[in-house]
């Protein structure tokens, strides 16, 4: 797996577009997130349909066509330096095939931030644009607007990425050891759902795979991992980082399943690394070469996440 192109870091005054690619966005949470971004001396602009709600499907932030148009217009706007997702939920898979990837490639590399349902876009940016991205807190996420650690780590990654080349967590080794590879991953259920989709990468070979999820019963998590195993998608993976399992079964029930499904890979696995749907979530760059030390609970990037 090759390292991807790293976009340029942000500077004070940078314009960032906030888009709703998935679920509907509560206005008060969006305003709180915008206040945080303005406090960082950024210039946030809200996509025209960011506060829309689909007339029939209440789980979508407006129509597929409008969400896709907002996203593409933000990315292709030469005045925009970064695109930040407002929240996750569900909906990227419905709109992603409406994006003009040739036009987005021509717009050049930019910073992209999101997680959860946004996993689908992380995969597409890797395969279609060869671009490194940031798996991090979203602008209207309550876990972002009310948490200093989440804000601080994302801010450092955006403005001074050399200061967070070593990402230290409270994680412990589920399987001990060290491994080097290119970071990738996201929400487990979305990675499983993307098998066979045109934007999905063929395998995690050569990668340090980051996995997390939210609101899933243990047997469903088992099914997603088993699907990836049976499909051969995990063959050649170098190491695994496990994030949060918020609103899933109690972790003492999830943990044995993770050990059972991942232990046979013969690679280091670190658990409770502190990214995903959790308080104080860390920002994890995708598409960069790094070294995982499962025993120490650290991920050391070869280079800063952004140029």
TrEMBL record:
Active site: 116 (nucleophile), 212 (charge relay system), 277 (charge relay system)
Keyword Disulfide bond listed: no
Keyword Transit peptide: no
Keywords: Carboxypeptidase, Hydrolase, Protease, Serine protease
GO molecular function, a single term: serine-type peptidase activity
Pfam families: Peptidase_S66, Peptidase_S66C
Domain LD-carboxypeptidase N-terminal: 16-136
GO terms under biological process: proteolysis
Top-level lineage group: Bacteria
Domain LD-carboxypeptidase C-terminal: 180-292
Family: Belongs to the peptidase S66 family.
Name under which the protein is recorded: LD-carboxypeptidase
Organism: Streptomyces cellostaticus
